[in-house]
Amino acid sequence: MNLRDILNSIELFIKKGVEYVIAIYPYVYSYPYWRDQSVVLTLSPLVGGEQARKICTDIYKLLKYLDLDLELRKKVQRLLLNDKYITSVIIEEAKKRLSTANAYEKRLLKIVYTLIRAPETSLMLKIRITEDEHGFTTISEQALNSLIKDKVDLGALLVKYFLAFKVMIWEGSELKLYPFVFSRLAESLSLMTDIKEANKAGNILGISMLYHIVFDIKNKDFLVHFFGEPLKHYAKKH
Amino acid sequence: MILIERCSLIATSVVAHEELIKIIYRRFLKNLEEQSIRELLYLFQGILKEAGYNTECQDNYCGIMTSSLKPIHMLFYPWPRSDIVISKLPGDKLVIIRGTPSESILRYLQQYLQNELWIFYNDRKSEIIIIVSDEYTHSRLKEILNVLANKFQAKTLSISLNKQVEEMSVQELFRKIFERLQTLNVADTQAAFLRLLGLCIQTREVDELFKLFNIAFSEEDKKLISAMLEMLRPAIDAFSNVFGSCLERLTSLSVDNVDVILGSLLVLLIAGATMFSELSKALPEVVVSRAKDIIRENVYILPLCRVYGITL
């Protein structure tokens, strides 16, 4: 079996459902010992455990040659990052899901995405956020959940919105963020974009308040007089 | 009001590491601020250039070079901030803030307006609101305001000030400082001053030193020296804690007019800086070079020095 055959099979496979393509990633990028667990871990929140195991068996049938041919495995790994069709399926699905996301989940995703991408996070929190040899930004699930106070399964959330997949490792599990999704959706998932848009839209009050809060400017006299009475009440709350 | 929601993010439950998200927001806002300032600067610089004015700009500051010796200072803010500090630097000052204020800004400015003119710029409507005091005498600014009024829809609001504002021209200030310097007995002053500095570092006997200080200097001289020290304070603070505590006492003699600080420094630089160079000799080279850096970094001083042909 050569790369062309594999690509054809993957394309056929994708037609069965978009979750099938998601399943291929943990399968191909996990250590072989952990790959079934990785697939099930990634897919269970999306399709349930039973279906996840079924998909895993299907993938095994499709990609079992990879166990014998290391070179082919590497080629498939490169293919999954660079093939326009495969990556576009994930990007489009991520876009679609994000466009219908509720405000709370979208807010969480933006915060998580911003935190993961900020160089300060790993320094300040001593959390390892690395880029693996394939270009996936990688963070442990435990570290990821420590970013947020709310009791939300952030890993499942990232998987649900097609932003990442999970892989099992000896120490637990890791999230790997698709680089091609990030490069396409970086703008819409960035808190910076919100600030820029608010500035462009002339939301001077919002920007000013945010500025005073994040730079710890306690005295807000000028602001209160600038924006008038309504701000007084707002300023008191903060 | 997306941003209001964002603000509440920081204070409420979602983020476990408020400090971290604050740092990230700071970075974002700094970027946005720099970008927005650049846009504001280009806009106003362009308009003034078209009208034949040269400007020297750095960060959020622009000096408009006019035929007179005094530049006109402009400060730009892309959104209102409560931490704006207006320098007491001599000369006409324009503070340009993006946004349209409510009427109560007049009450605020009535109380705090010093010697500057405020312009609020609404970029969406291409409109400016100019706030002037009824004691408005900035005749040189009138032509600038006319240039701006031709470009934007301009509305001028006048307010009565609660207090008298005294403006001293740079030349006047220099003349006074020169006079003062001439009447000083430089040799004695220097000797006493250097002794004081030396003792500060060596002995920590601050009270003893103050006796000496009081004997050696007249009230006016103390002001000059403490002004000079104020300029050097960051460098000296970094140099020595002992010296820092000594400085605190010295500078507690209070200099009312910050113009004197700047003026005296400039005069000292222009005049070959006898005293300053002696002071430089008394301080380690690293401190002097840091002090020079501070002066160089000071956006207000730099264009002024250029006007007076001073190389720092």
Could you name the key traits of this structure?
heterodimer; A: 238 residues; alpha+beta; Arc Repressor Mutant, subunit A; 3 domains; four-stranded antiparallel beta sheet; 67% helix; 8% strand; elongated; B: 312 residues; seven-stranded mixed beta sheet; 13 helices; 7 strands; disordered N terminus; disordered C terminus
Q: What do you see in this structure?
A:
The complex is a heterodimer of chains A (238) and B (312). By secondary structure, chain A is α+β, with helices and mostly antiparallel strands. In chain A, helix 1 (3-15) crosses helix 2, helix 2 (18-29) runs antiparallel to helix 3 (35-47) and helix 2 (18-29) packs across helix 4. Helix content of chain A is 67%, strand content 8%. In chain A, strands 1-2-4-3 form a four-stranded antiparallel beta sheet. Chain A has helices spanning 3-15, 18-29, 35-47, 49-63, 70-82, 84-99, 103-117, 119-125, 141-145, 154-160, 179-185, 191-200, 204-214, 221-227, 229-237, and strands at residues 129-131, 137-140, 164-169, 172-177. Chain A has three domains: 3-96, no CATH class; 101-185, Arc Repressor Mutant, subunit A (Orthogonal Bundle); 203-237, no CATH class. Chain B starts with a helix and ends in a 5-residue tail after the last helix. The model of chain B is unreliable at 1-13, 163-171, 180-210, 235-278 and 296-312 (pLDDT under 50). Chain B has helices spanning 2-11, 18-50, 104-112, 139-151, 170-183, 186-203, 206-216, 219-239, 241-251, 258-270, 274-282, 285-297, 301-307; strands spanning 54-58, 61-65, 72-77, 93-98, 116-122, 127-133, 153-159. Chain B has 13 helices and seven strands. Helix content of chain B is 58%, strand content 14%. Chain B has 312 residues and is of the alpha/beta class. In chain B, strands 1-2-3-4-5-6-7 form a seven-stranded mixed beta sheet. Chain B folds into two domains: 16-159, no CATH class; 170-307, no CATH class. In chain B, helix 6 (186-203) runs antiparallel to helix 7 (206-216). Chains A and B meet through helix 7, helix 8, helix 12, helix 13 and helix 14 of A and helix 1, helix 2 and helix 3 of B.
